[in-house]
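Q: I'm writing a short explainer about Mechanosensitive ion channel family protein for a general audience and would like to include a description of its predicted shape. Could you first generate the structure from this sequence?
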Amino acid sequence: MDFSIAWQKINQMGRDFMALLPNLLFGLVVFVVFVFVARGVQSLVERLVQNRHQSQSLKLLLSRLSYVSALLLGILVTVTIMVPSFTPASLISALGVGGVAIGFAFKDIFQNFLAGILLLVTEPFKINDQIKYKEFEGTVETIQTRATTIKTYDGRRVVIPNAELFINVVTVNTAYDMRRLQYDIGIGYGDDIGQARQLIIEAMRGVAGVLADPAPEALVVDLAGSSVNIRARWWINPPRRADIMDAQDRVLEAIKNTLTAHGIDLPFPTQQILLHDQTETTDGNRKTQREGWPAGPGEVPQSRAEAQREQAEQAAAAPQPEKSAD
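A: Of course. Here's the predicted structure. Afterward I'll give you a sentence or two in plain language.
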């Protein structure tokens, strides 16, 4: 076998590699330099945004973006040095060919990334804020470029894509320093409404954590079936979940004890059950009514069975028409 052709090709590849070796070494040195430059740019950005009022997640995002941008620039310069035939224009043209396919493939990723950037810039909520999104409610742990994680009140982690949070309604429970709570209390119809309202307000004022300004309120909101409902409203600070539960526990206990001590009734719904113990024969007979109502005096309408029996007797006694002979 003649190996001369193969040897010539291998020899040519070796000469090409040796000719390219200086470019490879120089490109490697340039890449290492750009790695240090990227770290320096990242440190500089972190120092620039250190004293500003942006959120911690936004500061981390800006530092990472600066590092990645400098590193990508270094990769482009390194590839250009190692492969002289490669130019940024050729990279752009190559990306243009597959840009549509890449866009469709990574549409959700790009959408969540852009939504994450906008959430970090606009800051509708921050880390440690307590938010509610659909059926999920908890404390914000992290705001990343792809998704936001919250820790629910029962100790679970929920990962929500940023695009969902950006285009849908999100309730921020800790957006303001104060929050108003409310609860409906029912009193009896025979109780004094003015006295009950005054007692409820005094009970709320005596609870630690209830703000004096805005002042607690007690408003009549409903004349229900078995009670007059008074809505107790009070403000707390801070408005976190644990503070809400503690304040509500203390307020309701104080209201109940105060109203009970002053003889205010706290009725509960009652129902009356009427037992129907009639048979088909006596159903509807007002003289023997047994559905919880007294029997009717004097002449009363017939029962259903009596009326049906009388109609049957009348129909039987009526003369039948004669049949004509054919």
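A: For your explainer, you could say: The mean pLDDT is 81.
Q: Perfect, that's easy to follow.
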